[in-house]
């Protein structure tokens, strides 16, 4: 199986709904594959990711259980984690310790804490509380900025993160029809290789402070985003 983005929910949107919404926003078909792991039936959806520099396929796995029931083989394949929650459910804060442990033990590359929106209601979980209790690796994503408007729900931030992730099966794209210049192509591949090394070093350097990690991660994301935007313009 391909590297996996594991999707769990602590709220009203089911993992399968989130998975299908991601594929819909990518304009990709929803092809379901079912396999048994440790007597647990696991459903997965293929998700293709292609940029100027690489193309790959990952598996989106909507999981209806909780962390303790995730099969070992699926844990080994998981490189990204998407968790849906409701800000009005304050008990979710108690689950974050377990989520953080899962991130560290399984060496997850990227994580998203996702909710539809923050309403500002009394006793609602706040961004500050969530940041205080979650691993620095997590991005906190709202699918709808203003719940009072008719603004459509968007998974754009999650899609960008999935494209920026350095998946273990990344392949450099051979489709560079926009450039016939060998030297230019070589420079582009060298730049991408440097990005991969930077990402790997960022993951393995345990001596960095939280602020240093955030700063380096932001710098890496900006460079990667620039590359992907350049790809779109071509």
What's the short version?
With 234 residues, this protein is an alpha/beta fold. The chain has one domain (1-234): Rossmann fold, CATH 3.40.50. It has helices at residues 15-25, 72-77, 96-105, 127-133, 156-164, 182-204, 210-233; strands at residues 4-9, 32-37, 40-50, 54-62, 78-84, 110-115, 138-142, 171-172.
Description:
The protein is α/β, with parallel strands linked by helices and 234 residues long. The protein has one domain (1-234): Rossmann fold (3-Layer(aba) Sandwich), CATH 3.40.50. Helices cover 38% and strands 22% of the residues. The protein has 7 helices and 8 strands. The chain has helices at residues 15-25, 72-77, 96-105, 127-133, 156-164, 182-204, 210-233, and strands at 4-9, 32-37, 40-50, 54-62, 78-84, 110-115, 138-142, 171-172. Strands 1, 2, 3, 4, 5, 6, 7 and 8 form an 8-stranded mixed beta sheet that branches. α6 runs antiparallel to α7. The longest helix is centred in the C-terminal third of the chain and has 24 residues, at 210-233. It is globular and about 60 Å long. The two termini are 32 Å apart. The model has no long low-confidence stretch (mean pLDDT 81).
């Amino acid at each position: 199986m391909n590297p996996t983005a594991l999707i769990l929910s602590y709220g009203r949107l089911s993992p399968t709904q989130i998975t299908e919404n991601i594929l819909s926003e990518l304009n990709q078909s929803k092809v379901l594959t079912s396999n048994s792991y440790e007597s647990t039936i696991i459903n997965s959806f293929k998700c293709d990711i292609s940029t100027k520099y690489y193309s790959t396929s990952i598996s989106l796995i909507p999981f209806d259980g909780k962390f303790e029931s995730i099969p070992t083989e699926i844990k080994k394949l998981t490189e990204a984690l998407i968790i849906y929650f409701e800000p009005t459910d304050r008990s979710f804060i108690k689950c974050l310790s377990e989520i953080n442990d899962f991130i560290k033990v399984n060496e997850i590359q990227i994580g998203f804490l996702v909710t539809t929106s923050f309403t500002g209601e009394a006793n609602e979980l706040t961004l500050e509380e969530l940041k205080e209790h979650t691993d620095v690796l997590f991005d906190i994503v709202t699918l709808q900025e203003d719940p009072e408007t008719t603004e459509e729900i968007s998974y754009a931030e999650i899609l960008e993160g999935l494209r920026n992730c350095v998946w273990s099966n990344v392949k450099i794209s051979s489709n560079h029809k926009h450039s016939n210049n060998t030297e230019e192509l070589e420079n582009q591949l060298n730049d991408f290789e440097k990005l991969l090394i930077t990402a790997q070093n960022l993951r393995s350097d345990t001596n960095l402070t939280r602020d240093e990690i955030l700063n380096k991660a932001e710098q890496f994301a900006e460079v990667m985003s620039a590359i992907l935007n350049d790809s779109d313009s071509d």
